[in-house]
Amino acid sequence: MLDMQVHNSVQMAVQQLKAQGVSITMIRHNDMDALEAKIVQLRNKHRKVWYFADGVYSMYGDFAPMQRLKELMDQYEPFHLYIDDAHGVSWAGENGIGVVCSQLFYHEKKWCW
């Protein structure tokens, strides 16, 4: 699954997965209710359910709801997060660690770029 506003580079990478037969679902921008509904739908069908998002969205300048994403990772075993924080690194968080790492420094089911 991916947020509709995730950076184009992530969308292009996901298109490669789609071409290989991986099912891809778009989630309305930062719609955590829709995301949770999709997780519930997929959690017994897949070992891992990935969500691709940005830490800071370049088009709107808003942020991914990190606290809610953490809650979903804690609540649903298969839910994993891939988050691109290229727009947040160097200016956000202590010593410029970025939006994602300043709010969710470590989680075993988070992969940040």
What features would you describe in this structure?
The protein is α/β, with parallel strands linked by helices and 113 residues long. The chain has one domain (2-112): 3-Layer(aba) Sandwich (Aspartate Aminotransferase, domain 2), CATH 3.40.640.10. The chain has helices spanning 8-19, 32-42, 66-75, 99-103, and strands at residues 2-3, 26-27, 49-54, 79-84, 110-112. The strands form two sheets. It has a three-stranded parallel β-sheet with strand order 3-4-5, covered by helices on one side. Strand 4, helix 4 and strand 5 (110-112) form a beta-alpha-beta unit. The radius of gyration is 14 Å and the shape is globular. The model has no long low-confidence stretch (mean pLDDT 84).
Q: Rough shape?
A: globular
Trace the largest sheet across and list its strands: 3-4-5
What's the domain count? 1
| Name of the CATH first level | Alpha Beta
CATH superfamily label = Type I PLP-dependent aspartate aminotransferase-like (Major domain)
User: Can you give the helix content as a percent range?
Assistant: 25-40%
Mean pLDDT comes to: 84
Strand composition percent:
15-25%
Radius of gyration: 14 Å
Helix tally equals 4
Low-confidence stretches: none
Specify the oligomeric state. single chain
* Structure classification: alpha/beta
